[in-house]
Amino acid sequence: MTYSIITTEKFDKAFKKLDRQTQKIIQSWIDKNLVNCENPRIHGKGLTSEKTGYWRYRVGKYRILADIRDNILILVLIDIGHRDKIYKEEITQSRHK
Question: Residue 96 burial by CB count (10 A; 0-12/13-18/19+): exposed, middle or buried?
């Protein structure tokens, strides 16, 4: 069974702020590695401390923060940003049980 991808408003807003070339690179990476994947964990890394339970994907100098919901086979892309700034913000995505 494969995972579906949904994005948050925060992700969409941050993605639109990126330059066109960076958007193409990131969208290509998402299409290749995450769309209809059977195990989204193989391409990412689990976060620790107060962000435990969330995952990150590395795409060049950018990071995609995500929530993997196994019970409904959905990968929620929460935020995207430069590696220097993305971890400093609090994750505001509400988590479903």
Answer: exposed
Instruction: Name the pTM for this structure.
Output: 0.86
70-90 pLDDT, tens digit per residue, is 999 999 999 999 988 887 777
Residue 8: inside a domain: yes
DSSP E strands, the chain = 4-7, 45-46, 54-59, 62-69, 74-82
Q: Which domain holds residue 82?
A: 4-88
